[in-house]
Each structure stands twice: as structure tokens, then as C-alpha cells.
């Protein structure tokens, strides 16, 4: 196992069988699989899909969108959040992320973890498109010791 | 006039009256005004809205979404594009951008120009929420000498 | 304690007294304090400094650099890494990060954790400018379940 | 000619012979060629170098630094600026950018144009590593109608 792949606290997350999950979560994962087909990734050829479940039951789908200048692209998770937020949906329950890597789960990148953490802790489900094994975790586990802007400077 | 505000080629763009514009463009601008109300900008308090007109007539709305770690946020223009792309709409005609600055137009930032340029040249309409004067330009004018990834390396 | 501030695995990191640390680490922390004075942060007024210790003993300093378009800025940690990399120094031992927040440690944002994880696991020391209490952690703890690009596609 | 490659105002920039340039600018271009060799770009294999000339004569070198999560990387231009800023050098005269593309100049991406514009207008020299033809332009030409944050909100 490489250092980069190690998990400091393995017990903090679980791998579950897709069929053992709540049916609503199964639907969210299926929508993430569909969302993935819209990925615009001519540079990496690496397709990622996401589906964000809001507290009111609405699901927003996202895919990764690359750019010839790599740093300007957007990931699938942020696309899904941006859709929800821009339509006034600000309360979330869970996000599903789908990518295909033979030997590892396609977890959210650090930038997405930071972006998502702004809106509180939600469950995160990560799987391959065949929807068999699912990594079950949450934002707080994925981003411990979160950076918080000095809140006293701002009124929300 | 400050150096940062100067325009190297003033003739490359025009300021038009809102009422003189095509009625479809007027609608796009109005939707951008509405989109702006969803902005999540607790750090800057600076709300921006965008509305992207696809070739098939669909309009996607976006707003800016900030983060406590500033670099991880998303602008209104990218939000609108991400929504369209993640639903399979890849052909665009125009984008409207709405922000309120007393003395200047809230033009797209360089990152958004780069992001949008990936998908070809479209018209860009920039106005204040009161929809009076409208800066009319396009992506090619906003991003001359565009960076292009060595295309021979990629098959689209 | 807010949800955003909670740590899923408190035992994964420690708070140490500055004076109890290795003298080289003390020096790295002091250089981060000095680096912080160069922060360009007219928008947030929130100064951050970093100092990166290379395996060969060289220390590179960084500060945060903001932009009127927030997403385009750079954090202190990435500045320090960029300096080292652009001078051919690719092996690291530790990074120190200094910010002032009354009630919390100014930990690296998710984007910086992602950026740093590319170069392996190193120790991370986080403190306030007065250099009293120091949060001692590392990249793997700060970014569990790291995203790894499908390595089979690339030859390093 | 593709739409993405067109220039709205060709007269706004020039292509000069390397040997016709000021000797200091020739040196800056040569340093950018050397800086390019440090590029960390395992994903694109596309090396870029930059060298930033400060008003006091100091030259800072930068290279592009990629990340497995593409959006988190840094370009050569921003690396050079970050080095200068983090050492207190805030006044610039020119930047040189070197990349190899057979048929086009490797111009700064939109994110870098935005980042650089924060610090005023400077000359930009773009060339291939063989240092023959040099595109001579400046930030204002590369980023017309710049976005400016509502300055009344901030005191610099
Ligand atoms: Zn991501
Ligand atoms: Zn923008
Ligand atoms: Zn950061
Ligand atoms: Zn760039």
C-alpha cells in the first residue's frame, strides 16, 4: 500500500454493498452513474459523475468539466452543488460520486472537500459505475481539522 | 483612469441600451438578474448572476458561490456553464452577467474567460441589475491570444 | 463546538508546546511567522505564512496572495511548495503554517492539502504567530482517502 | 483559422525577433527557458517556464506544477509572481513565458492573466524554447475590460 493511499483512521469509514443501502441512496448513486456520461474530459479521459441529495428530496447531478488550462476546470461534486445552490437549495443530506479506477475509490479531491464543507457535514457515497462496493464516509471524515474563516469578521 | 481599468481597444465592444436589444437577449439578462439573488457570498457580499443561452433556446442560470477558503469558490458564469454541460447542452449563443458596481461593468474574471473559451466564441452581455446600459462584447474580445492546449495530443 | 470544527479522530493529532519541538522545527515555525508579514490579502485582511522544510535542509517561505477575483488567489502553503519545486527541490520533511484565529488553528485548506499530497506525506505544524501551542499533524491525517489519479495512465 | 485562435485586435501585439530585444529582456527570456526544465507536469507532459523581471532588476523564475486533481495545479506565471511577492518584491516590469507548441504561442491562461492583473500592467514576452520569434504584448491587451472588485469596500 502506498503512503498516499493510506487512511489514518480506517474505522472512520465503511465499505458497504450497494444493495444493502437505503433505496433513496441507491437512486442517488444511479443518478450519479448517469450524470457521469456527460463528463467533458478530453484531456484526462477520466469521467466522474456526482449526484447531490437535498433535504427536500431533490437530486442535482454533476459531472467533471475540464479545460485546456487544467486549473480552471470543475469537478463533478462542485458542479452538483453549484446547480443546487443556484436554484436556492441549500440543505443537503448526501452526495454520491462515481468514477472508474480499477484498484481504488474515486474519492472527492481536496478542493471539493473544502467547497462542500462550507455547507455542513453530509454523507458521501463513492462507487464504481457497476455499483457493487460503496465507500461510505462523510465530509468531516474526509476533511478533519477543517479550515474555518474567522467567523467574527462576517455575519451570515 | 487607472491602468487596471483601461481598455486597449475600446472599439472592440459597445455599450447598448437594454431596450434596443433583441427580446430573447432581454430575457436572458432578466434571468441573470433573478439568478443573482441566489448568490452565496458571505465573504465579499458581492452578488453576481449569470444566464447562459444555449443554441436550442434553453437558458441556464448561475450565481457566484464563495468559500471560506477563497480560491475554492465558483463564479456565476462557470456555474451557468456547469449546469448546461452536466445536462448535455454543449452549444451556446450568449451569456449575460449581472453585478452591481457603481462605476464599472462587472465583467467576467480571467478564470471564467478561460473556462468559457473552451466552448467557442459567444456573445457576452454585461449590465447592472437595473438593466439600463449593457456592455456588449464576446469571448474572443475578452480573451485575445487564447491559450490552446497542444491539440495534436488530444482527440476530441 | 460546531460541526464544521469537529475532528473525527482527535487522537490522530496532537497539540504540543513550541519549546518542546525539535530546534529545526522551531526554526521552520519562526520562518513561517516572518513569511506571513509578506501576505497580500487586501480582501480578507487574513494573513497566513508558511515555511517548507526540504530533506536537504533548505527552507522555502510562502504567504497567501489574494486576487480581486477570489478564486484566482494562492495560499501560503502552495506558494512555499511552488518556490521549492521551481528550484528543483522535490523532497520535503515538514511544513509550518501560521495564521491568527482567536479560537482555532489556521489549518491548510482542502485545495492545499490536495496540492501537497501530490508530493507525499510530510509533517504539518500549525500555530499562531506567538508560537505557543502547536498543532502537530501530517498530510495523510489531513486528507484521508486521498484521490489518486489512475496511475496506470501515466508514467512518472 | 479557428475561432478560438483569433485575435480581435492583431495590431495590439507584435512578433519580434529575439535578437532585436533589449538585452535585459533577452536575459529574462533565457531564464524562463531554464525555469521550464523544473516543470512538474506528469499528466500533460506540457512544460512551461516563466521569468518575472522586477523593477529593481531581480528576476524570479517559475514553472508549471500539476496535480492529480487537475484544478489544484499552478501555472508557471503564478509561480514566478508568488515567489516575488513572498519575498516582498511587489513592482514588476515584464514577464517572459516559454512553452513549446508547434503552431502557436503558449500565452498565459485566463486565470494567470487575472492573477497578474492585480499588480498592474506589465509587458509580456512569449516564445518557444529556441528563442527565435517572440510575441510581445502586455497584461492590459491580454485582459481587456478587467474585472475590478468594488474598490470602495477595501482600503489598500
Ligand atoms: Zn474535486
Ligand atoms: Zn469568474
Ligand atoms: Zn490553502
Ligand atoms: Zn495559467
UniProtKB/TrEMBL annotation, chains A, B, C, D:
Source species, domain of life: Eukaryota
Family: Belongs to the cytidine and deoxycytidylate deaminase family.
NCBIfam families in the record: cyt_deam_tetra (TIGR01354), PRK05578.1 (NF004064)
Protein name per UniProt: Cytidine deaminase
Biological role stated in the UniProt entry: This enzyme scavenges exogenous and endogenous cytidine and 2'-deoxycytidine for UMP synthesis.
Root EC class: hydrolase
GO biological process, alphabetically ordered: nucleobase-containing small molecule metabolic process; pyrimidine-containing compound metabolic process
Documented EC number(s): 3.5.4.5
Any one GO cellular component localisation term in the record: cytosol
Reactions this protein catalyses: cytidine + H2O + H(+) = uridine + NH4(+); 2'-deoxycytidine + H2O + H(+) = 2'-deoxyuridine + NH4(+)
Cofactor requirement: Zn(2+)
InterPro entries per record: CMP_dCMP_dom, Cyt/Deoxycyt_deaminase, Cyt_deam_tetra, Cytidine_deaminase-like
Species for this entry: Zophobas morio
Amino acid at each position: 500500500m502506498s503512503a498516499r493511499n493510506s487512511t489514518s483512521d480506517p474505522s472512520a469509514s465503511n465499505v458497504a454493498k450497494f444493495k444493502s443501502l437505503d433505496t433513496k441512496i441507491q437512486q442517488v448513486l444511479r443518478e450519479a452513474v448517469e450524470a457521469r456520461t456527460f463528463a467533458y474530459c478530453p484531456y484526462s479521459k477520466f469521467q466522474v459523475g456526482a449526484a447531490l441529495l437535498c433535504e427536500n428530496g431533490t437530486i442535482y447531478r454533476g459531472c467533471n468539466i475540464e479545460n485546456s488550462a487544467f486549473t480552471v476546470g470543475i469537478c463533478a461534486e462542485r458542479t452538483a452543488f453549484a446547480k443546487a445552490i443556484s436554484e436556492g437549495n441549500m440543505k443537503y443530506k448526501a452526495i454520491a460520486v462515481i468514477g472508474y479506477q480499477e484498484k481504488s475509490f474515486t474519492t472527492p479531491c481536496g478542493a471539493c472537500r473544502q467547497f462542500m464543507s462550507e455547507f455542513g457535514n453530509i454523507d458521501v457515497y463513492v462507487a464504481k459505475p457497476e455499483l457493487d462496493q460503496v465507500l461510505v464516509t462523510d465530509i468531516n471524515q474526509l476533511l478533519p481539522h477543517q479550515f474555518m474563516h474567522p467567523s467574527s469578521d462576517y455575519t451570515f
